[in-house]
Amino acid sequence: MEETISLRELMRTLGKRLNLIVLITCTAVLISGIISYFVITPIYQASTQLLVNQAKNEQPAFNPAEIQTNLQLINTYNVIIKSPAILDQVIQELDLNMSAGQLNGKITVQSEKDSQVVNVTVQDPDPRQASEIANKVAAVFQEKIVDIMNVDNVSILTKADIGENASPVKPKPLLNIAIAFVIGLMVGVGVSFLLEYLDNTVKTEQDVEQTLGLPILGVIATFEEQNMERAPRNERKPKLRGQTVGTK
To answer: Which residues belong to any copy of the Tyrosine-protein kinase G-rich domain (predicted)?
Structure first.
């Protein structure tokens, strides 16, 4: 016999386990809020932009061949920016207490497609230090690229400035709480249906029909309890063994 679940049964299951769903959802939101505000260290971000332009020579101001060459060099520049040759000098000049590998993990280098602009982004718990690292990486790269590639076609387009009221880029507490709310709600609903599926006890006449596959012909009511509730208080006397109750 194929079993079907009606919308009414689904709502009845959710209503019966509503307290459990609310508890799981509130717990997930509370844990997410505590972790986001008090556990995770805020991370700040600073960015600077480099422009890969034409080399300083006597060629025309606009040379498509030179621009295409610069575009092809950008991928190489992206690797050089994060190389130990650049980062070691940055660490030395800023007196940073970290290795080149650790500094490498803080730096992200990206360039837009068919663009001569390279974005150098630094993330650090200290906003001032993030800005200093970004600007120093750009300056050292601009200086070192002349000796490394024997070209002078890099200029600093924009310096990193964290500002007075810097806000962290991560974590994002409100977003984390919203995600925790949705996940907690889904987990609560899932646990409710799982508990309902595992509960094989017979509680109502509908459960008897579903378990035995037979229609219910009648239901025996508890007449004695109903009569005791309806009887006057003075008639509710305990009946001794062997004693019968007469009627007038």
So the answer is: 139-194
